[in-house]
Structure formats: structure tokens, C-alpha cells
UniProtKB/TrEMBL annotation:
Domain of life, source organism: Bacteria
Protein name stated in the entry: Peptidase M23 domain-containing protein
Region forming the signal peptide: 1-24
Family annotation (Gene3D superfamilies): Glucose Permease (Domain IIA)
Keyword field contains Signal: yes
Keywords assigned by UniProt, alphabetized: Signal
Cited InterPro entries: Dup_hybrid_motif (IPR011055)
């Protein structure tokens, strides 16, 4: 396993089981393999829990395995959803159902009877006289005397306790085909299907990987490392003839001249292709962030994991045939009012992974886009390798935000221990002042803004120094010169204050928790640390220059104000998205399908607008706000979310995508991607409607809705042009047409 380039989460389970050489010998056999044919794990291992996110994806990822266990017993259906989509299989596609009993399929047997009847279409509407053995089972297990003409739905409605019993405990010994329409049910119809082990679904383990609804074709995403070359290769004027690395901006066929360390690839579709090391510098990045010196080029890379991070060869050793690998990250900022673009993938980190000649490596699909058109899932811990944003990049982002409405939105969310940042900020403000407040000169500096951060603090000085005239402002503050409120707005704006506050208080909260504090005492201790620094004695009597508050009383006052602010914050829902004022520039808008707003739908009217997108395209919120509802409706919406924009007083409903990347409680910016995939219906469904309840969720039917296209045109976001939608302010052919 040490010599594997990537330990993929699951789609490529083979990498856990086969050595690189075994895969390289005959990659073409991979598509014919099934999970039942995969050998046992050569060594034990584990996958981590993803905590609260498990509820969003429908199953728990954590598990351990030991050497000798088989993948089919360890892997769950949820593990392979993104790559193979087994949930689209009907049970009858996988096995001969007439040979099975109900107890043979945990997917069915482990569901409460009432839940099963909802999962299998019309299964509860058949009279018992047509369901051999069911009446006898109900009598034996539950002691019920039932009529032959009664249906299971009628019986469960009269005996709620029966509906709560597991199907296997009630009907387990009966043939599976006793359940009407069971042959029509898909894996995804059954609640909790993601949690099921692959081995628990009869026949699933016998399906070749190339015959799943989304077939796995490793030939498209892997290659064999052939030869590693050093810097003397192509040292003259002759360019490398078959490059497959580069950047988003320069493309992924960027030739190298003048000394080009690289690896040469082999294998079907990759014969003789050349992947350059990061020493091959290519243009990258776009927008304002992409123009920052040092952030406008990257080492050559590919994107097999999508755009989250890039995969690079850091160096090669021609003598040993080795290639050392790393990741490269970038920084992007779309903001609410301006799209700042992205830096180059210039933040490079080593992976500590080395491959050698004849090893199998991950390339991503050969699509001319570096592999990002069909991204695979990376080990989740790799995102944690992201370096801190460079100060010059953060400065550009902070300056761009200084024109926003004053503060607040960036404080949404909770810190360690469940501390609400918004409430904590309000509590501090009740003691310290407003965003443009100026404190007294003391100990060589002044307190500035809502949280009275002192000008002698290194982090405050770094923020201010990046602003034009910032150095002179700091010099004046150091000398005790008079500072105006307008100068605070200029050199230490609200967005910078909130950004620093959130990071600073996170550290303070963590310190308080590590010292053993809990509940309201966390807030008290946070106040003491803010007031007197990390070394402040617990409940100390030291006071400020005014003598009004001590460490102890400052903390107590902060905790009292926090409790009041927390109640008010929850009541007022202060974490609101802002009304969009900038048209979308980079995300797909789709083309209008035949199902337009108000179209007849079998006695009713279409309440939204359908947009045609590609099967793997992403889609975004147009107005932003808070996700107030997320669910599944098999009556037409399928997977959907409701986003409430408090400023507009409207609910944006996005439906029929294959999966969403956001959940209830998330704050969404206008233009933020929220989901991907249209294989369910071929379109994405968009609605705008009035909220119908206290949770600000949308209702159903056309009443209270708005024509989505007219609504977005009225906001100045999009403009209709025939069957296409164009961002306002852009003309055909300017690069923003979709």
C-alpha cells in the first residue's frame, strides 16, 4: 500500500486490495471484476467518522476492518453512490427474487412494517386474501384477528404498534415475493439503504463494475508510470511532444522546453504521454486574485479530484525511477458584490507519497480538462493540508469587502462549544462600542472598532499595513495621535474586524474549554482572555485604565450580555443573505426547457421553470439566503432545498438535482453552487414563492409563486434571450454565455 499514489475513498476500492503491479499488468480486466471477486484486504485499517455530516449523507462512514476481511463485507452502499450509483438498481435486476425469503434481505427485513409499505409502491393496498401466509403471520406474531378483505395499510392504521415492528420479525419467514410490487422497488426506495453492507443485498456483489448504472472504467482515470526523467530532458529548443499537464488557464497540453523533469506514462490511452513536475511553470489564476504577483502562475498539475486541489509531481529521480507527489491549493473569492476570481494553484504542500516505474497512478479522465470533468473523491484528510491564505491575498479580499453593509453576515455560525459568534459579537459590542469606535491611548496603542482590538497587536497591524496609507496611520496611533471614526472605517473596516474577531475568539474559546470551563463560564473566561490576554489570571481583580471593570466583572458582564443577545439573535434570525446586486458571471444558467412556468400539468400548473443542464453540471442559488428546508418528494420535486432570502422575503426552491452540497442552516451566497447532476429528470427545477410558515419554508402548488425568469430579470440578475438566459450586462460571445 505504501507505493500506491492514492488511497481513494471508495469508488476505486480496487486500490485497497490490489498491489499497483497487479493492476498494471492488465487494466482491461477491471471493468469485468465484481465486488465478490475482489480479494481480502492485505492489512487492517479504518475510516473516520464525519460527525454531524453523517446525517446529511444518510449513513455513518466510520468503521474498522482487519486483514483477511473482504471488501464486499466492509463497504456500504453509501460508499459507492458517487461513483457507481447502485441505488438505481431494482432488486429484480440483481437476483431471482422468487428464491429468497424476506429475512434474506436486511434492506427489507430491517425496516418497520409501516415504513416498508411506504417504500414499495402500493404494497399496502392488496387484500390479505391475495397475500398467502400474511394473515397467519399477523395472528402468530401480533395476535391479530384480521379479515381476508382487509389490506395491510388498513390494519397498520388501526394497530400503530404493528407498524413499528420490523418487517423481518413479522413476515420474515415468508417468500420475498409475498410483498406486492417488490420487483419494482429500487434500492433507493428503502429508507437507510446507504447504511447497508454490499454483501447484504443479494446479487449486488456479482455485478461487474462496468455494468453499474454509472460504469467504472479505470482505463479512463489511471495510467502506469513508465520512466522518470530528470531536468536534462528536452534541455534544448525542442518541446515535449505529448504533454498532459498544465493549468486551467493555460490548458492541459502545455509543452515544456529548456529542461523538463517529468514522468512518461504508459497504458491504454496514455502511451507516451508526459506529466511535467511542478518545475514547469504555467500561467494560472484569473481575476483580481490571479493578478497578484506570485499568484499568477503554478507548477504544472492535473485535477483528478476536481477543482478543490490540484495533483502535482514535486520532483523526479531518474536513477531510482521515483516520482514524489504533492497537492496545490488556490484561493477564490466571489463575494457578494464583486467576483475577485482565483489565485493560481500556488499553495503547494508535499503528500509524502512516492511512486516508481510500473506503479499505477491516478491521472483523472483524459478529457482535455486535467481530469476534472469526472472528478473522483479524495481522502477527506487531504483538504486539511490546505495552507493558510497568504497575507497579500487576504488583504485583497478584505479590502474588497470593506464596501459591504457593515459587518454581521461573516459572523454566522458556531464556534467550539456551540458558542454563537453573532451573539458573542453583540455582547462584546455592548461593552466596547461600534465598528468605528476609537478607544483611549494606553500602553502604546489605541483600541479600535467594535471589539476594541489594540493597534499594537501584530494581527491588527498586519491588516492595517496592507491598506494604502496604513503605515502612516499606525505611526500616528503608536504616538497617541487623534484618530477619527472615518479613519477606522478606512483602515480597519467592519469586515476585517469581524474576520479577526472570529479567528481570535475561536482561539479564546478553545483555551477556555481546555482550562475546564463549560456552559456560561466559557463566555466569562473568553471575556477575561479578551480583556487581559491569554495569560490573564482566572477571575482576577486587575482592572483597565478606567477602573470600571476587572477581569472577573468583565467576564460576568459579557456572559450576561451574551445570554440576552443569543435570545434576540435567534428570534430575529440576524444571519441573513444580502440582496444580489451583481449578475452571475461564471456559473451555468442552463437553457429553458419546454416545461416553463405555468405550463399545464394534468389538471394543475407548473409552479416553476425547468432548465436543461448536462448530467454532471452544477447549479447555483441566484439570490442566496439561509437553507430552511431540504428533503425528498417522489411526487415530482425529488431532491430539493428551500433557500429563504430575508431581505427579499422570498423562498428560492431548487429541485430535481441528483445531490445537494448544502443543508439546513447553511448560509448561501448569491451565485454559490448548491448541487450537481440532472440524471434524475434531465433538468433542474427552479421556483420563487412566498414563505408559508414560521420556518420560512415554501409551500406547494402555483399559488404564491412568481415566474422565475420574470423575477430574476426584475432583480437585474439575468435576461432572457429566446431559450437562453444571459447574465445582465454581458453580450453574446463575451465568454459568459452558457
Amino acid at each position: 500500500m505504501k507505493r500506491l499514489l492514492l488511497r481513494l475513498w471508495l469508488v476505486f476500492t480496487l486500490f485497497f486490495c490490489f498491489t499497483p503491479n497487479a493492476l498494471a499488468e492488465n487494466l482491461s480486466v477491471v471493468e469485468t471484476l465484481s465486488f465478490n471477486q475482489m480479494p481480502p484486504f492485505e492489512q487492517g485499517g479504518s475510516w473516520p467518522s464525519i460527525g454531524e455530516h453523517a446525517a446529511k449523507i444518510g449513513y455513518e462512514t466510520a468503521r474498522d476492518w482487519v486483514s483477511g476481511e473482504y471488501p464486499i463485507d466492509v463497504l456500504k452502499v453509501g460508499d459507492i453512490l458517487d461513483g457507481l450509483h447502485p441505488e438505481a438498481f431494482r432488486l429484480s435486476d440483481l437476483a431471482a427474487l422468487d428464491t429468497l425469503s424476506i429475512v434474506d434481505i436486511p434492506l427489507v427485513a430491517d425496516l418497520p412494517l409501516a415504513v416498508l409499505l411506504k417504500s414499495v409502491p402500493f404494497s399496502g393496498d392488496w387484500p390479505l386474501e391475495q397475500l398467502p401466509g400474511v394473515a397467519e403471520a399477523l395472528s402468530q406474531v401480533a395476535g391479530l384477528s384480521v379479515k381476508p378483505t382487509e389490506t395491510l395499510n388498513q390494519i397498520v392504521s388501526k394497530h400503530a404498534d404493528l407498524g413499528e415492528l420490523l418487517t423481518g420479525n413479522v413476515l420474515g419467514d415468508l417468500p420475498l415475493m409475498t410483498i406486492p410490487n417488490i420487483e419494482l422497488a429500487k434500492i433507493s426506495d428503502f429508507e437507510g439503504f446507504q447504511e447497508q453492507a454490499l454483501s447484504s443485498i443479494p446479487g449486488l456483489g456479482d455485478i461487474p463494475l462496468g455494468e453499474f448504472p454509472h460504469p467504472l472504467t479505470l482505463l479512463n482515470v489511471t495510467a502506469q508510470q513508465d520512466i522518470a526523467f530528470g531536468p536534462k530532458e528536452y534541455a534544448g529548443d525542442k518541446p515535449t511532444p505529448k504533454p498532459v499537464s498544465g493549468s486551467i488557464e493555460a490548458g492541459f497540453q502545455v509543452p515544456c522546453v529548456g529542461g523538463c523533469p517529468h514522468i512518461e506514462l504508459t497504458g491504454p490511452g496514455w502511451q507516451g504521454d508526459q506529466w511535467m513536475t511542478k518545475d514547469h511553470r504555467v500561467a494560472d489564476g484569473h481575476g483580481l486574485l490571479g493578478a497578484i504577483p506570485g499568484m499568477d502562475e503554478a507548477g504544472a498539475y492535473r485535477l483528478p479530484f476536481g477543482e478543490t486541489f490540484a495533483l502535482q509531481i514535486r520532483s523526479t529521480d531518474e536513477k531510482t525511477g521515483a516520482a514524489d507527489w504533492g497537492l496545490a491549493f488556490r484561493v477564490c473569492s466571489s463575494g457578494f458584490f464583486v467576483d475577485l476570481g482565483c489565485t493560481a494553484y500556488a499553495l503547494e504542500v508535499p503528500l509524502g507519497i512516492t511512486t516508481y516505474e510500473k506503479d499505477t497512478i491516478l491521472t483523472g479522465i483524459k478529457d482535455g480538462m486535467g481530469g476534472r470533468s469526472q472528478p473522483v473523491r479524495a481522502p477527506p484528510e487531504w483538504e486539511a493540508l490546505r495552507p493558510a491564505t497568504p497575507p497579500d491575498v487576504q488583504s485583497v479580499i478584505s479590502r474588497s469587502r470593506s464596501g459591504r453593509n457593515r459587518g454581521g453576515f461573516g459572523l454566522c455560525g458556531e464556534g467550539p462549544g456551540g458558542v454563537d459568534f453573532q451573539s458573542l459579537a453583540v455582547a462584546f459590542s455592548s461593552i466596547e462600542g461600534n465598528y468605528n469606535s476609537v478607544g483611549s491611548y494606553t500602553a502604546g496603542g489605541r483600541g479600535l472598532g467594535r471589539y476594541q482590538y489594540m493597534t499594537y497587536r501584530a494581527d491588527v497591524r498586519e491588516i492595517i499595513r496592507q491598506k494604502p496609507g496604513g503605515a502612516a496611520f499606525l505611526d500616528k496611533a503608536d504616538r497617541g495621535g487623534a484618530i477619527s471614526s472615518s479613519e477606522v472605517d478606512q483602515f480597519f473596516p467592519a469586515a476585517d474586524q469581524d474576520s479577526l474577531f472570529k479567528a481570535d475568539q475561536t482561539r479564546n474559546i478553545e483555551q477556555a474549554i481546555s482550562e475546564g470551563f463549560s456552559g456560561s463560564r466559557i463566555i466569562e473566561r473568553v471575556g477575561q482572555i479578551h480583556f487581559g490576554g491569554p495569560a490573564a489570571p482566572i477571575d482576577g481583580n486587575a482592572s483597565d485604565t478606567h477602573g470600571r471593570l476587572t477581569l472577573k466583572t468583565y467576564g460576568e458582564e459579557l456572559a450576561h450580555s451574551y445570554r440576552l443577545a443569543e435570545t434576540q439573535t435567534k428570534a430575529d434570525s440576524q444571519c441573513k443573505a444580502q440582496t444580489p446586486v451583481q449578475p452571475l458571471k461564471t456559473h451555468l444558467t442552463g437553457t429553458l426547457s419546454a416545461q416553463e412556468y405555468g405550463a399545464p400539468r394534468g389538471g394543475r400548473q407548473h409552479a416553476g421553470q425547468d432548465l436543461d443542464l448536462g448530467p454532471n453540471d452544477s447549479f447555483q442559488s441566484y439570490i442566496g439566503g439561509e437553507v430552511v428546508n431540504a428533503g425528498y418528494d417522489d411526487g415530482g420535486y425529488y431532491h430539493y432545498i428551500d433557500i429563504y432570502n430575508a431581505d427579499l422575503g422570498v423562498v428560492e426552491r431548487i429541485a430535481e438535482l441528483d445531490k445537494f452540497s448544502v443543508g439546513v442552516g447553511d448560509i448561501i451566497a448569491p451565485g454559490q453552487v448548491v448541487g450537481q447532476g440532472t440524471t434524475t429528470t434531465g433538468v433542474v427545477h427552479l421556483e420563487y414563492r412566498d414563505p408559508v410558515n414560521a420556518q420560512k419554508q415554501g409551500g406547494y402548488g402555483i399559488q404564491g409563486t412568481y415566474d422565475p425568469i420574470e423575477y430574476l430579470e426584475g432583480l437585474g440578475v439575468l435576461q432572457r434571450n429566446g431559450q437562453t438566459l444571459n447574465p445582465v450586462g454581458h453580450s453574446k460571445g463575451d465568454g459568459h454565455d452558457h
